[in-house]
Amino acid sequence: MNKSRLEAFSDGVLAIIITIMVLELHVPRGVELAVLRPLLPVFGSYVLSFLYVGIYWNNHHHMFHSTHQVSGGVLWANLHLLFWLSLFPFTTGWMGQNHLAPIPTAVYGVVLLMAGIAYYILQHAIIAQQGPSSLLAAAIGRDWKGKASPLLYLAAVFLAFVSPWIANGIYLTVALLWLVPDRRIERVINSKG
To answer: Side-chain half-sphere of 129: how many Cα atoms within 13 Å?
Structure first.
């Protein structure tokens, strides 16, 4: 099957996720800068989640740039990823509205963990369909970031009960690891082109 419908649908879902997240930023009454202070946790969680959605969108684009065809299994794996990403607005709002309380911060981490696992499943569904000598398989290589990220998320989920600030620091650290687009895929595509 052609991949264009999957990419268009995924792009649309990610755009909706960002739109829903920004709607959680309610305009305060008043004109003083002080009225913005209560919004800082909400805005901070929005920025972090926006960063994550951008990272997923960017890497999803790169991954499908190296993919020629999709199967039913790839479609379902992609929907699985989109399911977890669609929970970002809820967990982002819950964590921000409750000023980074432990339970919302931990649940946010669980959603990040599950989205990371779903992305891994999608990658491997594509590789299973295209074979071990595919561009994506060559590009992923040892994938140290892909293996370290779930462990960091898991640690942050438990650390959220010790200090939500530490947990959010870990979430931010993982995001910064992935901030640069996955150049492995670009390098492999350029070398084959």
So the answer is: 22
